[in-house]
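Lecture 7 notes: from sequence to structure.

We start with a single chain of 63 residues. Read the sequence below before looking at the structure.
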Amino acid sequence: MLVLSRHRDESIMIGDNIVITIVDIRGDKVRIGIQAPTNVPVHREEIYEAIKREASVATKGAV
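Now the structure, written as tokens:
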């Protein structure tokens, strides 16, 4: 894992077309903004895991 330090309003580039910007920092919470092409799905980890579980259940049910 790469760990980077950033201040508010500073950004991180991923490849040529994904930008992660630190929008706000309050206590132990950091708000980030993500700019990515529409063909790149962006989800919180817990939502991504739920999507994977649902797809797995649907695949098992289709067999």
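The beta strands are 11-14, 18-26, 29-35. Keep this in mind for problem set 3.
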